[in-house]
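Entry type: protein chain
Record version: 2
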Amino acid sequence: MSLVLDPAAQDLLFREARTANTFTDEPVTDEQVQAIYDLVKFGPTAFNQSPLRITLVRSPEARERLVQHMAEGNRPKTASAPLVAILSADNEFHEELPGLFPHFPQAKDVFFAERPAREGAAALNATLQAAYFIIGVRAAGLSAGPMTGLDFAGVQKEFLDDDHTPLMVINIGKPGEDAWFPRSPRLEHDQVITTI
């Protein structure tokens, strides 16, 4: 059975999409970011938790502060990308649950009253949303450069608070010159899928 999604869209989102390492200086607008979020917010999370939070780094001063917390090899990419996003998990996401999960508003207290339960759920579901966000960036005709090579504690202290756990930094923009490393291999179907 073939996929319903048009092959060109499949290529845009997956087969031809790559992690960009260089970018042009074409700006990424607030309207583009809004359109990306307005699409990916519909991706599922458990209890509709929606714990992902996105901090856009636009000012030169904030960019300079962020670059200092990136791994050495990631600094030039973050310094030159048109837009950089810090993706984090909101460990107090449960406060929004009565509105986000209205058919069972008690979920806030039944399942997420304790901080460790919230942290685990937030990390898992915000990471899932981060994947949706990357696909959304691609759907907007942009390239994403997600990175976890960073000082997480430093980024949290510099940009977030104790209720937000950083997950990754994503450079966003149009790919520049020599943007791609060679494509790495992928596992085949029979290496991944088991039927029982």
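Comment: The chain has a mean pLDDT of 96.
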